[in-house]
Specification:
2 domains; two-stranded antiparallel ribbon; binds S-adenosylmethionine; alpha/beta; Rossmann fold; Helicase, Ruva Protein, domain 3; about 300 residues
Length: about 300
């Protein structure tokens, strides 16, 4: 029995791929070939080479049912990552569910900036020196803290998150990559409960889309990704404006705050950084202002 509106007429692998591409294209799913490949690989538990290497292979009834359901879900707009339950980030395969934002490639620029500020191998200059202490605010799937734990073997990592459901996924991802002993997860609002002047780096990809921009956000994101991960409030600045003074409080002198932002809020965020030094905003590959970094000064003005 076909599920939803998508029916696969043939059960051979090559033909199934073709039918899947056609059905996704007919429902205006972007990149229909890539999506059909991904969903067929998911149904068969195989890689792309296998997909193209065995066009005459017959699908089992179970594989066919999984593929049909996946195509129907994708045609309804459900992101492929929520269907397959996976997304790659920083070379790691991460579990994703609708409880967490799907990690985006532009967030890898945030990791790159932290690694410039705290180069691998330099996070503990000598065996006696203290580790670099980093806190990731709003960890979601855990993508930022996991990437940093992997890249910085001596750093001490903390991750905060307000959603218990998201925290569960972050913990599962940490265990999946044998990093559960490297990251201390905290369920709290932003940096509540963290000691003053105790961190070298505060890093975050906070919710930064304003409800006023809702119409400009892709329908798939609006409908299926957690609203509390995407939207900050009416203007988009509501979370960041609370986070900046909190970051100042927990950072050591000369510590860095690294935030993912968007072009819409870049100048307003810059305007709220009175007292911070070395404020810099780097663009992403689409030339959109994306990564803000700012240093807490060594000497604080009274
Ligand atoms: C844009 S998502 C980023 C998730 C992940 N860090 C990433 O880069 O994909 C923002 C995350 O912040 C969490 N969050 C929202 N408000 C928060 C708050 N006040 N305190 C802690 N976490 C919060 C959301 O639940 C969500 O997981």
């Amino acid at each position: 029995m076909p599920l939803g509106t998508v029916t696969i007429s043939a059960v051979l692998l090559g033909q199934s791929l073709k039918t899947g591409i056609e059905s996704l294209a007919a429902t205006d799913v972007p990149s229909p070939r890539m999506n059909a490949e991904l969903l067929l690989m998911f149904a068969l538990g195989c890689d792309r080479a296998y997909l193209y290497g065995h066009p005459e292979r017959q699908l089992t009834a179970r594989e066919e049912a999984i593929y049909e359901k996946a195509l129907a879900d994708r045609s309804r707009g459900i992101p492929a990552q929520y269907i397959t339950g996976h997304q790659e980030f920083w070379g790691m395969d991460l579990i994703v569910t609708p409880a967490v934002l799907i990690p985006r490639p532009e967030t890898e620029h945030v990791i790159e900036r932290v690694l410039e500020l705290c180069p691998p191998g330099d996070e503990r200059r000598s065996p006696e020196a203290e580790s670099c202490r980093i806190v990731d605010v709003g960890t979601g799937s855990g993508c930022i803290s996991l990437a940093l734990a992997k890249a910085l073997p001596h750093a001490e990592l903390h991750a905060t998150e307000i959603s218990e459901a998201a925290l569960e996924i972050a913990r599962a991802n940490a265990a999946r990559h044998q990093l559960e002993n490297r990251i201390c997860f905290h369920r709290c609002d932003l940096l509540a409960g963290m000691d003053a002047e105790s961190f070298d780096i505060v890093v975050s990809n906070p919710p930064y889309v304003g409800q006023s921009e809702e119409e400009e956000v892709q329908l798939e994101v609006r409908k299926f990704e957690p609203g509390s991960a995407v939207f900050a409030g009416p203007t988009g600045l509501e979370v960041i404006e609370r986070l900046i003074p909190e970051a100042w409080r927990v950072l050591k002198r000369q510590g860095w705050m690294v935030l993912e932002i968007s072009g819409t809020i870049a100048s307003r965020v810059r305007g709220s950084l009175r007292g911070w030094e070395n404020v810099h905003i780097a663009n992403d590959l689409r030339l959109i202002p994306r990564v803000l970094s700012a240093k807490k000064p060594d000497r604080l003005k009274s």
